[in-house]
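Q: For a teaching session next week I want to show students how multiple molecules come together into a single three-dimensional assembly. I've collected the sequence lines for a complex. Could you give me the predicted structure tokens for the whole thing so I can convert them for display?
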Amino acid sequence: MNDLLTTLNYNAWILPVLLLLPMAGAAAVWLHGRLSPSATPEQAAGTTRQLRRIVFAIFVVEAVLSLGLWWSVDTTSTAWQAYYSRPWIPMWGMHVTLGIDGISLMLILLTTLIMPLAVLGGWTSVREKLHAYFALLMVLTTGMLGVFMSLDLMLFFVMWELMLVPMYLIIGIWGGQRRLYASLKFFIYTMLGSMPMLVAILYIGVRTGDPFGRPSFSYDWILAHATFNGPTTLWLFAAFFVAFAVKVPIWPFHTWLPDAHVEAPTAGSVVLASIMLKVGTFGFLRFAVPLFPGVASYPPVRFAILTLAVIGIVYGALVAMVQPDFKKLVAYSSVSHLGFVMLGIFAMTVQSVQGALFVNLAHGVSTGALFLLVGMMYERRHSRLLDDYGGIAKVMPVFATILTIVSFSSIGVPGTNGFVGEFLVLVGSFRTQPIFALIASTAVIFAAAYLLWALQRIIYNPLTKPENKILPDLNWREIGLLLPLLFAIVWLGVYPAPVLDRTREAAARFVHRVEASSLNLGLGPNVEIR
Amino acid sequence: MTFDLSIPSQLMQALTPDLALMGGAMVLMLVAAWRPDSDRHQRLVGYGSIGVLLVTLVLVLWFGARGLSSGSGVIAVDGFRFAADALFILAALGAVALGIEYNGREGIWSAESHVLVLFATSGMMIMAAARDLMIVFLGIEMMSIAVYVLAGMNRRSPRSAEAALKYFLLGAFSTGFLLYGIALVYGATGSTNLTTISDHIVQYQLGHQSMLLMGVGLLLVGFGFKVAAVPFHMWAPDVYEGAPTPITAYMAAAVKAAAFAAFLRVWRESFDLLDFAWLVPLWWIAAATMVYGNVVALAQRNVKRMLAYSSIVHSGYLLVAIAAGTNSGSAAFLFYLLAYTLATFGAFAVVCAMSRTGDRDLEISDYEGLWRVRPGLAIGMAVCMLALLGFPVFGGAGFWAKVYVLAAAEATPFRHLVPLTVLLVLASVISAGYYLQVVRVMFMKPRPDGAQDPAPMGTLTRVVLAVSVVLVLLVGLVPSRVVGWARDNQPAPPKSLGAPSATKAP
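A: Of course. Below is the structure for the complete assembly, covering every listed component.
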């Protein structure tokens, strides 16, 4: 495989192609909308069918192209893989610099693999203004991939904001009852978080500067050359922290999440939960902590963040337990899971960071699958309330089976992907932060409680409601789109080694960087004491 | 080439673009008076004005590209002047193009309205060129008097008359401040020439002289009125709401830009050393303008009023660039003005296209569900709103404009400008509340039952909207050329004409 990729010179072009393909796809979708006939209902239906196939094909091509990264990326190397750089605004020191390592590799693959499934999952639920919907979904994909690939702070910021408008419109136009409120809340929260980060990025870029006296926004350059004194780094870290904390979301910055996730259409919820929550934790791993290791390992700061993370873990689980609405329950469970990721990152042992990366991945798979299943329920019954269901196992056996497996993986039952990540986080953080790890471990029990209770109310209790007796079981499209996710759940749960091998080096470098500089409040280990 | 401004022929040469515009305006004034008012005649003069403006634009760009300079004198010949001129002409082109169709619809058949735009523009060009406080004053008056009339151009509308009167009274009031400031500065330094003023401040160590500082303060107030900075902004919302829509766009973009251009040059060339005195007041004015404008804009239901407050807010952002007081500050200022002018004209083109005879349908709720009936208009408006919000990619140039201002302010040695940049971005989060309100109403609400579809768009309005939106997006993707343009066009101090003039005066 590697030989084939080398002959194609795969690493040289893959990242820009992955970024541009969805953009080109968005343009193609727009053109399709202009050129296709839709005068009669038959024509419109034909156009819609054709459009869905085109979009699905583009996302599949994107996924297949990205798969090569699994083999071509050398995650043990200290150099950036698939590196690509060209000038963008040279006088401001801004470049289009792309590159990945073990941390971003998994997230990029998660993105490209989830997207076609998200499209399939929303195959029939979105009916109006399809062209705009799919075009926005594609722009969103570019934004998410761009965040994971950017090695230039300004490019990163642009990509970060690029995600915002499509998701805002997707929630606001195709969302549920309270979509106007949810979309605005989502937008304002995210923007409120990211604006201070813009100031911080500019401050770093302008005050660092390259050898030619221009500002420099290159990640590597800043990592090696930026020097700021203690209080300034604290402020800069705070700016990055708020931006990422809103996105993760860390308690108490999470209140946009239940609204946005619940009101978004199925594909939107899947993308939000599986991928867009990961950009927050990715931001900590790539930017906030490595740029300011001194602050991140400064005991009071670290203690505060760990406290918030653990509060989020327990709070998310407890609030999920009392939700009458299944979609909201899944949304709150995300708050809890992402708390584990934060705990893993800030416990700062190789094991816990690897665990955090793994939880990211596992949560993407299992929560994505849960949102898809909720969407399937909703399409049939037009209700998300747990009490409207009961005894579904009798009428929808396939659905019930899959929902059970996915719930187990979300709970973290051994043998599923959920177990590996949380176990690693807990084991890893127990070494440095025993008390936090202890409190966090209770959440595993809560998770079992809220999900099993929900399962009981949906698929087991007696089948009393007449509406539920006629629900059709999953069709082949739905089974087909869930199968890859089920495969991932079992594979990652039983044989996680390939993933862990690929993240080990990156996690070790991350931890080493923090430890090396935990003695000074400077920007990095290369800071000279003047 | 370096002009020696003490020689009349060279002074005339240095003023060629301005003279071309004024000459064209005078000819067109005669043409306008030649025949009785009619829609056809109004259109004819309008197209003539566009022609004159295009000729002037070519001249300005040509002069700007030649890298001219001048010796000391009453006017400046530098890149900054021609870059600012190009922006004014761009705005004037938009105003006349929108005005031709707007006037036709509203039955404003006085052909002079277009010619007055030309006169106002030539006043602005004088302001951008002025290197003497008296010339600044002359330019302001030329511009203002034309714009007073323009604001009241719709004689059938009482709101338009109110706008004109208010604008006139407060304009005269603020001119008083300016003039008194000029007088005090003259009294303290013995000169109205910008270069001489700064020389004398250094030479005679006038930095702490109270008469000079009072003069600077009064000038600050006067310019504050002209750019509608809080607390000198009260006239703006009423005037912007009442004036004919194309004129509102022109005022929001060009009139303010001209005041800023003069402000910037006076501050950079004369009072650069007095920053200890004006920086703190300017800081507070900028902060108040950003916060107050944004909060009040949130409450607006009328699109024109909302855009009026948004223009107040953008004055606040531009004041941050002025406060930076560096070369990158003035480059950021030019870039910002370009992005702002484009976005403003795009937005007002949509407002023109949406409103009906008698300036009805200007409430934000009239835009409900626009996307479903007129996707082009809705997307154009959304791009302009996001550009004014300063959002990357979708708002294109608006984002880089904001980045440029922020970076310029952060690169200055004054550390206390950093909190101002934080305030700027937080204020822009507030502004998301009203800019997004428009996006949300257009895209996320259904079209109300019984709402009339907007009338078909005129060609010129369509062109203005398309050009603005395309440029906003294009500059957003590849800003480097425009950044280079803004950076290369700095206000340059006069050159000493050493050898040649010495030989001439034996």
